[in-house]
Prior knowledge:
Elements: H1 2-17, E1 27-30, E2 42-46, E3 49-53, E4 67-70, E5 77-80, E6 92-96, E7 99-103, E8 106-107, E9 115-116, E10 120-123, E11 130-133, E12 145-149, E13 152-159, E14 170-177, E15 184-187, E16 199-203, E17 206-210, E18 213-214, E19 220-221, E20 225-228, E21 234-238, E22 250-254, E23 257-265, E24 270-278, E25 285-286, E26 300-304, E27 307-311, E28 322-325
Amino acid sequence: MRRVMLTVLALTLTTATLPAQDNPDWVRATAAAAWQPRDSQGELVYRDQLWIFGGWFNSFAAPPRDVWSSADGKAWNKVTAQAPWIHSDLPMTLVFADKMWMMGGWYNGRLKGHSASNQVWSSTDGVTWDQATARAGWSPRIAAATVVFQDKMWLLGGTENYYFGDQKSLRNDVWYSSDGRQWHQATAEAPWAPRAYHQAVVLNDRIYLFGGGNYVPQYAAYHDVWSSADGIHWRRETASAPWSPRLWFSAVVYRQQMWVLGGWSNNPSTNWGDAWYSADGRTWREFKTDVVWKARHEHSALVHQDKLWIAGGHARPLSSEVWSLHLPANWPAEP
């Protein structure tokens, strides 16, 4: 009996010392990047650099217009202190045709003179920004989802108003462009509910859209997943993914998996510090590690140098942390 008990105890101790799910841990590149802590910023990877620009410091001041880049997530270079665009809170950003693109966004928080934008800007160096159009075909908006798909930029949903809107401000339209100037509407009403603060990614020649909802005055949050091969016809992969309904989360494709990272839900107000992955949008698994970043929302998620990165966000308080995760090339998608 004693030998059996000792064996069980040894097995228990051995299991306890292993990382959660036997996964690698997150590594903090820096606790305080050179840029001021923020959330809702634009982010992308361009010419082997991480880029952060704009964002939100508080609701009663104009959003920042600075642009920063880094090769390693530790040392950051201020490329410019004041870019020409002003709607930099909750903009839509991506890389297309060897350019950085920034579009839409919100200006001036809750103050008088606030506005959403349908401007489209591009840059090859972060210093000089060219305005592709002052008025895209889609209505001024923030917090839409954007992807590059079939050699075009795509914009999906969003809201025309932030603090002062209603359900009518939410959109479920889909637009695409080959040059940032001319935009074409793929559909005026996709079958997924109108929403903002959601995310979309491209995997295996399909667009996947998930989560999001509305902030105020009527809070709503979803955890459904939809996919499309053309931006017009949509298939619901699941009405209820196992991750909690949420706004203000981040998403990327890494190791041929879609990732949902962090975010926020209301009633009660909750930041999330979880990470979930899926290869098909239907089956999701939680990625657990012993070391992880603090729960947060409106952070940046990026894939750079074969790593998954998290930067900034509202971790109560605002953060300028940068974290990375490196999974082996043979990392098993199945537990």
